[in-house]
Amino acid sequence: MCSNAKQALVSDLSDIFGMCGPIDQISVSTRGHAFVKFSSAAGVNAALAPGRTFTLRGATLRVQARGDSQVHHLRRHLQGNGLPHVERAGDTVYWTLSDAVGGGLVAAPASKEGLRAARETLAGETLTFLKHKASKQGNLSQRSLVKRPTGDAAGEPSLSPTVQALPSRTSAPSPSPLSVAAFDKHDIERVEVEEVEVQKAEEGAVADDADKPAVRNVCVIAHVDHGKTTLSDCLLSAAGLLSSERAGRACALDTGLEQERGITINAAVVSLSYTSGPTCPEDLRLSLLDCPGHAEFNSEVTASLRLSDGALLVVDVQEGVRAQTEVVLRQALMEGVRPVLVLNKVDRLLPVQRRRGEDGDPLPVDEAPLIEIHAHMRRVIAQVNALIAHSNTGPQPYPPLSLAAGTVLWGSGFQGWIASVDTLADLYAARAARAAEAIGAGVAEAEAEGERTRAKAMRRLADADSERGAKAFVQMALRPVAELHAIAGEGDVGALDVRLQGVLGRGLPEGLLTRAKSPDPPSAKDLRRAALGKLLPAARCILATALSRLPSPTESQRARAQQLCPRPSPEEGDQAAEDSTAPDARAAEVDAQTSAVAACASKGPLVAFVSKVVPMAGSSKAHAAVARVLSGTISPGTDVWVVDDTSASPAAGAKGTLVSASAARQARVTRVLRFTPSGVAGAHASGAQCARAGEVVGLLGLEGALGRSATLGQASLPAPLPLAPLAFEVSVVERRAVSLPAGGVGARKLAEAMPTLQRADPLVRCGYDTETCEQVIGGSGELHLEVCVERLRELLGPQLGPQLVVTPAAVAHREGVAARSPQPLLAKSSNKLNRFWAIASPLGEDLARALETGVVPVARADATARARALVANHGWDRKDAARILGLSPEGAPTNALVDCTVGVQGMDLVKDLLADAFAQVCAQGPLAGQRLRGVRIDITDALVHAVAASRRAGQIVPAATRAFSAAILAASPSLLEPVSIVRLSVPLRDVGQVYSELTGERRAESVTHTQAADASAHCADAADELCHVTAAVPTTQTTGLSEVLRGSLRGSARGLKVDFSHWAPLDEDIVGPAVEHLRSHRGMPRAVPTPESLSDRL
Fold first, then answer.
1. How far is the first Cα of the chain from the last one, in angstroms, to the nearest whole number?
2. What are the residues facing 808 on neighbouring strands?
């Protein structure tokens, strides 16, 4: 364990055990074992109090007494739990369980004689052996005998004699319900459980669903800086993973780079466990995904929503609905994820102090501002509901969100309080029950009174979403909070404590009251966090809402199954028929997979979806696949099919995709992980025995078979059909070239790191550009690329990382011709025995596109069909169409070489060499070293020597290359630049500014805008109506466009996409500088050669 981790553990343990009494010392070993020394026996007694448990980072601490002086404390603890002790065999101490808790026995023999005596005592009983080692002098190996108790183990209490703190090791099986304690009557020692052999009903048996805790998979989505991560802190604190003092401030789910920039970059995944109690209504296992709010990292939202069943839509109540609010909400609805609205930062609207009368006494909080707050909340809710109504195109329509229905929460994540109508009603019911008990009512009568009060409160809040219910909502919901908020702002700790005593029956923490009397009293912020967090704990409200308002995995998958398992389109059905797969059989496979996903059964066939890959903390190579198990069970050692999204066709879209068996690969899962919070980059995780249907886990062992997202299936069955691919709202719009100094291992290390970087990000594109000879990274914007470069430096290590050079990526151009060469150009071979005359002319953009897209056949076997198409559709001469020597580049040609000679002997002998020379010229044109496009070269005449030795490649290819290049330079050569279609959506008020930006220096053409369908449905102001802007912009001018638009439009631009459209000739006034730049980048001479310098005279 590193020093930082030790310090963090000591700090957490100090907070946990400090409530028991003064502590002299806390020490932590390198293996994570902690030793707590109290100042007095009172602290030990408090820590050993019957029923007292401690939780650290989601795990129950295993606490044991140590030393002779603590024997009587431990004995008293056991007796207080109904565990009378019986001493046998002199050197053995036995503790027996009373019949009330199941009837069992724990034996801790300290010698072989003691072990033998224990066996005699327990003769004929069914035993489970637990192998362990005791930290005794002499390192004596022992075995503890544990008689399994009768009855339902799940309902029995934990029997751990719980003062030495040992963080639970979740990677090892737990000895529950019996904890092992090895000690004798003279000494008490710590025992590590290394292995537990548990009897199983059958191999691979899966526990019944009734025995499992409730499961919820929830993602937190919002616009940037609306308070997602601070809200997540409250849930971490309730799970024991973060101290309550740091919750809301720590942003614990943000990594180092995110903490530095103050923004969430990666979607953090964390598994949280809660037990039934005041914080959570029932046992719950929560998979929480904290998503980024910045538009450039929206791909993380897409990946997280596929794993989730419900979403907490966080909206800053002051700012209201913003651009990314609409985007992420639309994404959630399209994925079939049910949203719940959280109106955050309500504290910013509350009064900071109470009003004072003429006599100086405080006056009640004025209702008028509170009514305005309620009206403002209703306006924000109406905006969100309008977006839901407009975007509700997912697999299931969702009703509007409302305060009365409990689907709208409000509060302050930073201050640690969140409320809903349900939690308010519970609060009033609990107060009424306490009041009834105070006047002598029985328990049943008090409960009945509480229920009546709860029903009355719900009736009064039934109109909370309308102006008619404003007064009741203000009186019951806003005024109590506003008064506490104002009193805390004045620093009146006494009044604050009295108010809490009246409402909750308990006041502020003793530590806070003590601190209030010290020279350093708590600040107003601290008082507000303490008072409001105690009145309306954020975690309790969120967890209760997740259990009651958000769907379980079974309910969610039943509704989303058809969307996750789409049926193949007719075109794909034809493809299946060509692959000898019967359409009926394919439909049956889809139906079977859909049924398995809808059932969400742990005993069903394995179906899982990997939406992203995350690096493991502390390792530059290990990556965990973040997977949602939709059906079946995954455990370490499971062999699975991996059907990567990249092996499916089409790559993305709403329709189903097909994959051949050869495209699927097999892999073995080596570990199943549950994610835990981390303070550094990368995922922290603990091992799990298995992952059942409905759970979100990490999988190791798939690195070699997995790209980014994939469908997993059971290897013993046929390869699964790929589930619906992820549909991203953003695209690659910015590119950067990266390089390392020449020499050494830099180039190899960079080539190895690029695929690793690409796997760890759902959107980034990395690769080697063969046209520009650069390693290129593509991202969704400037900030996204900065983060990618930082990750790449980390992957390269401390030596090579700082040497990484980042430059704007070069943009490949094309060379063409605008006219026909005035006359044939001659070039002779070096031996002067071979001669070629050539003419260059435009091929035509229509024909170039037809060849490139395959409309005109390009294969040699289709020469007859190609000739027929050229004559019929493109006006070619019949003889020329039949005498094409070559098309280039191979695969998607846009240039043609034609033999127009008449009566020349030997052309058949050198046609392959001429085609090679033509391919070389097409790959690197004479003007700027760029590829040719839309060029036709005719060989009009030739002289080929009859002797084979005189017409070899060394003679023919250079001569033909010079002839073709000279012909191109004589045919008014032109430089073509790529043109991209830029699409984005902005409010109507910002359309003019977008036009100005695009049509200025960026040379955009065909700029148009159209109003979005039903844009005015959710916009109170016409200027807020959404418009879709489309423009044709040269690709060279799109660099930095995302940053400029988002900055100048204050974040209102959304959905920016840049897609290649076509090639267009450069304007004459910028051709010269562009050619000079491209030649310099290629390392070519600055001056462009002339046709005369390349051709020969007759």
1. 83
2. 736
Closest CA to 877 of 902, 913, 855: 902
DSSP for 352-377? Answer: SS--B-TTSPBPPPPHHHHHHHHHHH
Comparing 9-18, 281-290, 545-554, which segment has the lowest mean pLDDT?
Answer: 9-18
Kindly list the distances between the CA atom of residue 476 and the CA atoms of 374, 742, 941, in Å, as whole numbers in the listed order.
Answer: 12, 71, 97
Q: Quick one: pLDDT band at residue 178, thresholds 50, 70, 90?
A: very low
Quick: pLDDT tens for 548-594. 999 999 999 999 998 898 876 655 544 444 444 456 677 788 888 88
From CA 286, how far away is CA 303, in angstroms rounded?
A: 18
Alpha carbon of 250 to those of 238, 269, 392, 732: distances in Å? 14, 17, 35, 32
3-state secondary structure of 693: coil
Under DSSP, is residue 880 helix (H, G, I), strand (E, B) or coil? helix
| Encoded tokens for 1079 | 């030649």
Report the distance separating Cα 940 and Cα 963, nearest Å.
Answer: 11
Note the pTM of the prediction, 2 decimals. 0.73
Q: Give the phi and the psi of residue 101 in degrees, each rounded to 5.
A: -115, 25
Give the model's pLDDT for residue 242: 79
For residue 426, pLDDT beyond 50: yes
Name the pLDDT band for 1 (thresholds 50, 70, 90).
Answer: low
SS (HEC) of 614-662: EEECCCCCCEEEEEEEEECEECCCCEEEEEEHHHCECCCCCCCCECCHH
- The DSSP symbol for 58 reads T
Cβ-based neighbours of 505, under 8 Å, separated by 6 or more? 431, 434
DSSP 474: I
Residue 933 vs residues 373, 864, 887, 899: alpha-carbon distances, Å? 64, 24, 11, 19
- For the four alpha carbons of 702, 614, 768 and 778, in that order, the dihedral sign comes to positive
